[in-house]
Amino acid sequence: KAFKAYPKLGDKIIEKTIAGYSFIGNNRKAEVDVSTSFANCDPSKACAEHCYAAGSNARPNDIAKSEFTEYVIENFPELAAKRIAAHYKSTNSGMEGLSLRLNDKGDLSEAQVKLIAALNENGIQVQVFSKRPELLRQLSDENLKMLSIDGTNLDLAAENPDLRLAVTITDDITQDMLTPIHDRVSVYLPVNL
What we know:
Layout: H1 2-5, H2 9-20, E1 24-27, E2 31-34, H3 45-49, H4 52-55, H5 60-75, H6 77-89, H7 92-95, E3 100-102, H8 110-121, E4 126-130, H9 133-136, E5 144-149, H10 154-159, E6 165-169, H11 175-178, E7 185-190
């Protein structure tokens, strides 16, 4: 009844929740990150096969947190950015001026592009790997942004020669495959499940 009589009541409740919520999680690879939804993910064949996020990081509580985080990013990006920035600045990584990792699962979304712009306004740079070059190009160059490549989607690297690369190393990737793109690689990521 209350929600019918006061349709904005739900927004007010969520805004209060945001004010005390910890969007930053403890990722085993990135230490601290903002984990978002699998719904944004369109994995390459190798990414799907070796997905550590779906294997060891897909606990029910983690998924629920990620989905709530994505909902807030889509509907309250400025509030989310302020809360994330304030929390991140209090972490060791934030105090050292390191970039905040976004997406230990899923991929970059339009809503996240807006969030990153708001985080930048709050003094936070973001580290993001994505298979969506059109969205990476929308991010400020102050962020560490890399096209996510593996042995099954090397064509994406060839089609986007202006972007830096994060290359996942699996058993099927060879030195001959890496040589043409090596000068663009910012990070090699070994699969270690």
